[in-house]
Amino acid sequence: MNNRDIFQKDPSTSKLVNEGVTSVNDEETDLALEVLRYELETFVCDGQYEKGLTHILETYLKNIEQAQQPAVWVSGFFGSGKSHLVKMLRSLWVDSSFEDGATARGIANLPQSVRDNLKELTTQAKRHGGLHAASGTLGAGASGSVRLALLGVIFKSAGLPEQFPKARFIMWLKSEGIYDQIRDDIEQNQFDFVEEIDNFYVAEGLHQALVKAKPNLFSSPAACAETLNNLYPHVQDVSSDEMLKAIKQTLTKDGKFPLTIIVLDEVQQFIGDNADRSIAVQEMVESITKNIGGKLMFIGTGQTAVTGTANLARLQGRFTIRVELSDADVDAVIRQVILAKKAEAKVPIEQMMQTNLGEISRHLADTTIGHRQDDIAYFSQDYPILPVRRRFWENTLRVLDQTGTDSQLRNQLSMIHKVIQINLDAPLGHVIPADYLYFDSADKLLQSRILPRKVHQKTLSWMKGSEDQRLTARACGLVFLINKLASSNSEIGIRTTIDSLADLMVENLNEGGSNIRSKLPKLLDNCELLMKVDDEYRIQTEESSAWNDEFLSQKSNLANEAHRIEAERDDRIRKKFSQIVRKLSITQGSSKVPREISPVFDAKLPTDANQRICVWVRDGWSNGENSVRADARQHGTQSPTVFVFIPKRSVDELRQQLIKCKAAIATMDKRGVPNSPEGTEACAAMETTKQTAEGKIRELLDEAFSGSRVFQGGGNEILGNDLQEMTLEAAGNSLQRLYPQFHTADHVGWAKVYENGRKGTPDALKAVGDDGEAAKNPVCKAVLGFIAGGKKGLNIRSQFESSPYGWSRDAVDGSLQILQVSGLIRAQDERGKTIDPKDLERKNIGKTTFKVESATVTTAQRIQIRKLLQKAGLQGLKQGEELSHVPPFLQKLNTLADHAGGDAPKPNKPETASLDDIRLTSGNEQLLALYNQRNELSQSITQWSKLAEQIDKKWPNWLTLVHLMSHAKEITDAEVIQAQMETT
Reduced to 3 DSSP states, what percent helix, strand and coil does the chain have, rounded to the nearest 5? Predict the structure, then answer.
């Protein structure tokens, strides 16, 4: 059985009528109808095509009686079949008919769900004035007016001229009932009716017919031009109302508006980056759908979803029904239209493919486009094209195509139709070689300056030569394609090695690729178009040769400079360790105190290694494993340091790959940005060399790091397979060594202690589960002991946040606050002024000085002090706030003393020296001084208050007497009264 015998249609005699490209319009020429019939016959309505059609039809039928129809947006990559889908819908909607009586719905092979909906559509059409469809694009002119462009599409669908004034004129002729009369009269006078309408302002035959039919309106042929120009002037745009009126007038028949769809293809392409067009389309669709109702539906197409760009996003409120097409839909069309097989051929194909599965599965096995298990299900459908080669073509076309047309998947219809014809007479088992793409595209690539002329000429001439020359030409073509693909998409992982080339060149699966693999090395090593870089081949041009010479020179220099390679290796080991471990901090305890992990790559540990967690990383290139283990033992079981050893593996290969990578980078830096196609190609090849070396380096370092060993101080090894987990486990153990007293303050409530302490709450320690006194709390006790004669907050924090404590800042600040509230310490600002606990902010703790109080005040003493303060009129006193109320208390007593005496005849002012003595003390000493003089001060308050009250009562009378005596000098016995005043 030959390949020709397996196809349902002989590829050499069948043809693609539309060349794989669908044009959406309402053309009814013989050629257009032939294309439409072919497209209907080959329409594969399954997958998203079936779902899309069903969704559109069901939505329309559901909304016929509603106020408006939602618009539809059909999206998919360039060439996914959007235009084909909407064109088929348009034809099926009106059930297009052909000369032989065949109809669209009869020709197309449709699923039952679509047929049922079309049947229901026909039933509904009988009640609503029939069916109508209009299709086209908005970019067809109309002076840039979206409304006029749309009217042109609608006019054409109704058999009217596309131009607005001409269409209105024809509709007027029909409404007046003189259309047939005018046409017959024009044709009888030997004029062409269509041409007369096209030139209706100056059409002699038309004007004569109008005068004859409407003498009252058109008095003479000469007057016709002026009258027509006034009635139907040329316009640049129309209003929304004019557009709506024209649509209704065009489509309404016998008072009924038909069930209508308007298909607008390539809407996204029309809008592009033009925001004004986006707004115009939105307003147009909104105006029509709201005013015409549920009888009309808009369908638009675009490459991306309606939310895909800012301009399209404006349409999402209108186009609410979304249909998205995918690669799978295109593959289904190709398999059923171009590659469809005879039923009796499927079994032989499957048997042959299964027999050669070993050869097929090895093809490009190390790449992302290599053989996949799910390819097997499609072997018989895709034959004689292997899925691996199909994917190679798809990816390569996207790279090579600069215009955006060749790489469209819709054009694969014509490409695959053409390619399967090259081996029709070959026996079953012969497949299409991947190098076909090169020779099919060579001329285009030369014209676009992608392919060097020398390569083009040599490869095409060799294809006419001997078998070896043909093999060389094919390999060179593949080298060119792979170099292009690899330089633009390194993720695929394809390389120009002998194996890769042979995988893509095998034509006879039954023979396999062993013969090709044995011949290629000798042929390619001696090929003038190629140069070999390690085990890969590159296209050789003058530019690429210069780049390669520079690359070899850089490699030679680096090979003699061992220190540079060693430095590069060490740097990559450091970066690799950071990438693997990633998390360079952990948290400790329930309070989740963050702890930094410090990687160390030096030959010695830092001097403060015993104060933090250091991960000392060393490798087999500089140290031995026994040396690292010995260091771990020597540091002892109390050391917080973690010791990591990375073994030395693949020494020579790693060195070579580092040299290659650095040489490639140096070459690109020195050669600079190329300004010719050959230079660009050479630069891309060098970039590929660099990326390949980078990949190898990563693999080799992965291998080395996979054998890493982790030791705790003292020599205990942390076992495991994950370096990050082992390192973090060791670091967690080191925390216990570094902060043995951490547990004392490990509580999440210390922040609450600080907050409550600042409010003056005496039992703030309850937040950490302590009901006792502050002096007995272990954390407060340790802080109090450290403060001794006085310490700044900065030093206190540093002491207790470091080893051996490692307490959280909340614990340190909270303890300081509660110690103040308890009267055990006092805080002073930089000027020595005492700071009240509620006024001390955390941001100022570092520069605040804390001192231990020399005396303590008991609870009973505080109660007596508060009573004294209250007697002076101070209210709202709370326990622990006594000290803050002493200054206003002393001020009140001084004021009271001022009111209790003065100049005669007032009593002498009370003595207040004791108040000054109290003011000169501070902290608990001040409170104790107040307590010790509480009885005297209490009596003073009572006595001074009485005196002040008497003075306030008698003083006004005294002032009145003094005033009167100033007027009593002439009165008898005034001297007696004066004497009495002076002795008072």
Answer: 60, 10, 35
pLDDT tens digits, one per residue of 526-583: 998 998 887 889 888 778 888 888 998 999 999 999 999 999 999 999 999 988 877 6
Instruction: Please state, as a whole number, how many other Cβ atoms lie within 10 Å of the Cβ of residue 267.
Output: 25
Q: Rg of the Cα trace of the chain?
A: 49
Distance CA 241, CA 341 (A): 56
Q: How far apart are the first and last CA of the chain?
A: 150
Q: What are phi and psi of 554, to 5 degrees?
A: -65, -40
**Residue 171 and residue 329: Cα distance in Å, rounded?**
43
Q: What is the mean pLDDT of residues 850-869?
A: 79
User: How far is residue 550's CA from residue 667's CA, in Å, rounded to a whole number?
Assistant: 6
Question: SS3 sequence, 313-342?
Answer: HCCCCCCCEEEECCHHHHHHHHHHHCCCEC
Length in residues, the chain: 984
Calpha distance 778→781 (Å, rounded): 5
- Amino acid identity of residue 900, one-letter, is A
Q: How far apart, in whole angstroms, are the C-alpha atoms of residue 49 and residue 381?
A: 20
Residue 414 CA to residue 952 CA, distance in Å, equals 117
For the stretch 153-190, pLDDT in tens is: 999 998 899 899 999 999 999 988 999 998 999 889 88
- Strands 849-852 and 791-792, sheet pairing: antiparallel
Q: How is residue 82 written in tokens?
A: 């959007």
Instruction: Give the contacts of 830 (CB within 8 A, at least 6 positions apart).
Output: 847, 849
> Structure tokens of 303?
């490459």
Distance (Å, rounded) from C-alpha 137 to C-alpha 269? 10
CA distances from 385 to 13, 312, 478, 921 (A): 20, 38, 17, 101
Going 958 to 964 to 969 to 972, the CA torsion angle's sign is negative
Three-class HEC string of 430-473: ECCCCCHHHHHHHHHHHHCCCCCHHHHHHHHHHCCCCHHHHHHH
Task: Indicate the SS3 state at residue 300.
Answer: strand
Q: What is the DSSP letter of 925?
A: H
724 Cβ partners below 8 Å, 6+ apart? 580, 581, 582, 583
What tokens were used for 970? Answer: 């002439």
Cα(670)–Cα(679) distance, integer angstroms: 13
pLDDT at 139: 74
For 891, other C-beta atoms within 10 Å of its C-beta total 13
Comparing CA positions, the residue from 848, 847, 849, 879 lying closest to residue 866 is: 879
**Which of 817, 837, 927 lies closest to 883, judged by CA?**
927
Give the count of beta carbons closer than 10 Å to the beta carbon of residue 966.
Answer: 8
Q: Which two tokens stand for residue 625?
A: 């494993």
Q: How far is residue 7's CA from residue 11's CA, in Å, rounded to a whole number?
A: 8
Phi-psi region of 803 (alpha: psi -120 to 50; beta: other; left: phi over 0): beta
The residues, any chain, with a CB within 8 Å of residue 337's CB and separated by 6 or more, are 42, 44, 413
Vertex 840, ends 835 and 842: CA angle to 5°? 150
Q: Rounded to the nearest 5°, which phi and psi values hold at 669?
A: -65, -40
Q: Residue 97 pairs with which residues in a beta bridge? A: 103
| 9 conformational bin, left if phi > 0, alpha if psi -120 to 50, beta if neither | beta
Task: Give the C-alpha separation, 897 to 461, whole Å.
Answer: 123
Peptide bond into 905 cis (omega under 30): yes
Over the stretch 223-232, which tens digit does the pLDDT of each residue have? 888 888 888 8
- Please enumerate, as own/partner, the contacts of 728-733 that have beta carbons within 8 Å and a separation of 24 or more: 728/581, 728/583, 728/586, 730/615, 730/642, 731/586, 731/595, 731/597, 731/613, 731/615, 731/642, 732/586
Nearest to 53 by CA among 42, 41, 64, 61: 61
With bands split at pLDDT 50, 70 and 90, how would you rate the model's confidence at 696?
A: very high
